[in-house]
Amino acid sequence: MSVTAQELETLSIKAIDAKATAYCPYSKFRVGACILTKSGEFITGANVENASYPVGTCAERVAFGTAVVAGHKEFKALAVATDISPPASPCGMCRQFIREFTSLDFPVYMYDGEGKHKVMTMNELLPESFGPGQLK
Ligand code: THU
Predict the structure, then answer these.
(1) Ligand 1 centroid to 79 CA: how many Å?
(2) Which atom of ligand 1 is nearest to the CA of 49?
(3) Which residues of 48-73 are buried (b: 16+ CB within 10 A; e: fewer)?
(4) Is 0.85 topped by the overall pTM?
(5) Which residues of the chain have pLDDT under 50?
(6) What is the domain-level CATH number for residue 100?
């Protein structure tokens, strides 16, 4: 199921806007994320840091957690936005978290501070991944 140009436009705007909701007083590194569900909804997240540094959560996991508790289990695409260039890609922990809910061809769009993007599939980001299928 591929993403339309209009969906991608909305996904990117929402991921970039979500950077403004980041709570990152320690790193000052803003990350915004937006997921497009198969039902056509857009769900955003941003990184939420903590005075006890390792307790902080990445934008991608905030977005997926929010989507899952809202009842969504099937997703079409993810966009992640930061202020750096080249764009940042999801950290290792987030890759595994995302993999739980996505197929290997799931696209992850990564936006830099100027709105330029790079796209990679889940399989490219996390090859030979361990997923729910292994426990069936
Ligand atoms: N961060 C994310 O939100 N997503 C990533 O994939 C990489 C890192 C956040 C965590 C922390 O709040 C800040 O960026 C610096 O590491």
Answers:
(1) 14
(2) 12
(3) bbeeeeeeebbbbbbbbeebeeeebe
(4) yes
(5) none
(6) 3.40.140.10
